[in-house]
Design a protein that fits this description.
It contains 1 helix and no strands. With 43 residues, it is mostly helical. The chain is rod-shaped, with a radius of gyration of 18 Å.
């Protein structure tokens, strides 16, 4: 898909991407949780 001659090279990028997405979603979930607590306090 990425044009590499060896699938192992592509798999390296896929692992990095999955890891990055997982990390970013965890950070986002924490922010959303914090925002919902602030909204509950302000109501």
């Amino acid at each position: 898909m990425l044009g590499h001659t060896n699938i192992k090279t592509t798999q390296i990028y896929a692992k990095i991407t999955d890891s990055k997405i997982s990390h970013d979603m965890s950070v986002f979930a924490g922010k959303v949780k914090g925002m919902s607590k602030k909204l509950a306090v302000n109501q």
